[in-house]
Amino acid sequence: xxxxxxxxxxxxxxxxxxxxxxxxxxSTSPANSATGSPVVIEFGNSPSGGANETAATADRxxxxxxxxxxxxxxxxxxxxxxxxxxxxxxxxxxxEARVRRIAEVLGxxxxxxxxxxxxxxxxxxxxxxxxxxxxTVSPDGMLSWWFSPTPVAYDDxxxxxxxxxGTEGGDSSxxxxxxxxxxxxxxxxxEICDPQPPANVPTADEAVAAARALYAExxxxxGTLDFxxxxxxxxxxxxxxxxxxxxxxxxxxxxxxxAEGAVTWASGMLATPVAASDYxxxxxxxxxxxxxxxxxxxxxxxxxxPMARAETATQGAPVxxxxxxxxxxxxxxxxxxxxxxxxAADCVIEPVDPADLEPITVTLTDVRLDLTMVWDxxxxxxxxxxxxxSDADGGMYTVIAIDDSFISLPEELPxxxxxxxxxxxxxxxxxxxxIEPAPIDNMEMVDxxxxxxxxxGLTLEEASKAAEGLGWEVRVSTLDGEPQVLTMDLRSNxxxxxxxxxxxxxxxxxx
Length: 511
Hints:
alpha+beta, TATA-Binding Protein, eight-stranded antiparallel β-sheet
């Protein structure tokens, strides 16, 4: 049984629905033409409808990739000649009364304020510096919302032991090394750490039951939601997917539970997807051609794949999830041996040509009709028919399935700027000092449990700032339920996080 007071919800049932209320909903990109036929969807230069690329998107394209050849070796079921699309038109505004009621249920107090454009726009209840519980609603087409509780101090069971006077770490006179009163080096404080998990974290079953109760209390029809959970001694995370026509869609919400069953974060959406016209589908063979398209346009817009998962390797035996050596294949990626540049030798590092890498063959064995989320050039969110292929090792690859005559894709994709190679100028080194490659990292590895407690529930921007203050860096490894292809370098102070609707929902790994 959950013991959190956060589940002492208001007694009255909230008579609110999934959709955003009001008659001011409009679309700059209508789902249907005046004749009722499907419209041509024009894609912008980024997956977010022309907005600046996120770090996650840039990360996916940073690592050199060899040629990947997709081959379908299965029997395709009859997936039909057309399938329906959905959209979230721009211009919808949330019902203020509903926002206030959601805040009330989640224990957020304060006035509902509209955020300025330089803060991302949208609406918020709670302290702007997040020192109290807050509820924020985004101005995006889905009217995404997320909840952050009041920050609380967490005792992880660690203590700091100061060196005793008169020992190697200090001196009886209270002086320090280099001072008149001391002749030994002062040792740093020693951290004695035995991390303890939070008390009374819900089990997976308890977390699902609590999540169902919460979203029902918020006015969602839980019969149209699919719940998936992960729970351990440190926390319980529930992913909530919206079902459209009985099938799981890419639309996701989430909620986390910590000590005593307290809600550590929650997210959702206030808008309802609008059914658009049916779109004609390409064949399975044409979809495989799209996966093999040399420009990568079809995977860049609404595609998922290749994923960085060790068990999807198709050449040689599956590799374990350990630090890869140069040349090792991990999923559909290959670790590249990056040369070390000696600044004294005036060397030049030549970029790795993907054409020089050994081709990788991915054998697809099954396919299903699916939906994928994309943004058009106007920033309108679409759920478009897609094919999701799978291989024998559990890898999944999604590509848009609607006919080319109804989509307009840019011919060229934007590429991120090359990462600068930082070296120490030779003139800053002592004369005669040998120049050696710097170690990869000799910092102590960030504790994943500590990172989870510090970052989960924050927006990505907040988490990045919090991590920076702790000497960490944040990288998005899972974005809205989709694993991202990452660089293979290892950093002990880097925290890889899962982000849903702009909120950090989990720490996937450290490194």
